[in-house]
Each structure stands twice: as C-alpha cells, then as structure tokens.
C-alpha cells in the first residue's frame, strides 16, 4: 500500500484487528521511508444499488457522500466519527437487503434524516435544512414545530 505522506509504495503492517461488527479489518501500517504510521480499513466490497438522482441521472452508491453530509450535520455536536460510521454501515445494510438494483436518492436522504433524528436532533435539523431546501423561514419553523411536538 502506498504511503499517504511520502507516496512510498511499500509499507508494512504493524498491527491488524477485526472491527467491532467483524465486517472489516483495521490495519496500522508504517512507512519505512518516512517512518510515519497510518490506519487503513479493509472490508468486503458489496453490491449496492445504483442511485437515481432528482434529475434522472444514475450514479453508483457513494458511502463517502453520506458520511460527508452526516459529518457536516454533526459538526460540533456530541456525535463521534465511530457513531457516524456505524450509522452509515446500518444504512448500507438496509439498502443492500432491500434487494433493489436502483434506489431513489430521496429514499436515501429520508433514511439519513430518520437516523440522525434518533441520534441528535440538532444534526437532524441541520441535515434537513440542506436536504429539504426550505424556501423560507416558515417552512423551517414548521419543521422545528413538528420536531418539538414529536419529542414530547
């Protein structure tokens, strides 16, 4: 594996551990050239459905996009990177198990919002405000009012 720091292409594995769920392997690696260490994760490549975008385009399911959106929503919130990874793992499993070859992007967005709603309501509102593209403050306030009603 290539070193992300100096691009040396021969690194060695220092330590390997099985992930919490047993579905990935965490490896600590060291570069002999610059002597820096880094972590890699190895997991089985699974067949995920294609995503149908709003404009009708189709693209491959991209785990990194979901993680990125969730990280932005959870910024400065008490939600760890590990929690985000676990939420995305659960979402991926859900989409694989549905058995569909294609899935509408709106279903993914709704699933992400539901997941965030259960973990952190502020992160949920942040994600919803971007995902739902509220037209004005009234739409945003309506969502907050619904959130407050449902949390009591």
UniProtKB/TrEMBL annotation:
Co-factor binding comment: Binds 1 zinc ion.
UniProt entry keywords in alphabetical sequence: ATP-binding, DNA-binding, Metal-binding, Nucleotide-binding, Repressor, Transcription, Transcription regulation, Zinc, Zinc-finger
Domain ATP-cone: start-end pairs: 49-139
Cofactor: Zn(2+)
Zinc fingers (unnamed), renumbered ranges: 3-34
GO MF annotation terms: ATP binding; DNA binding; zinc ion binding
Protein origin, superkingdom: Bacteria
GO biological process per UniProt: negative regulation of DNA-templated transcription
Pfam families, per the entry: ATP-cone, Zn_ribbon_NrdR
Entry keyword annotation includes Repressor: yes
Record-stated family: Belongs to the NrdR family.
Function: Negatively regulates transcription of bacterial ribonucleotide reductase nrd genes and operons by binding to NrdR-boxes.
HAMAP family, per the entry: NrdR
Protein name stated in the entry: Transcriptional repressor NrdR
């Amino acid at each position: 594996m290539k070193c992300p720091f100096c691009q040396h292409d021969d690194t060695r594995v220092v330590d390997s551990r099985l992930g919490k769920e047993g579905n990935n392997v965490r490896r600590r690696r060291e570069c002999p050239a610059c002597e820096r260490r880094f972590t890699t994760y190895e997991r089985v490549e699974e067949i995920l459905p294609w995503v149908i975008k709003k404009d009708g385009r189709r693209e491959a399911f991209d785990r990194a996009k979901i993680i990125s959106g969730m990280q932005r929503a959870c910024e400065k919130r008490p939600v760890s990177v590990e929690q985000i990874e676990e939420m995305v793992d659960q979402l991926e499993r859900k989409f694989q198990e549905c058995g569909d070859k294609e899935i509408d992007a709106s279903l993914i967005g709704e699933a992400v919002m539901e997941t965030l709603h259960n973990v952190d309501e502020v992160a949920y509102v942040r994600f919803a405000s971007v995902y739902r593209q509220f037209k004005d403050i009234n739409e945003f306030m309506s969502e907050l009012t619904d959130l407050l009603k449902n949390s009591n």
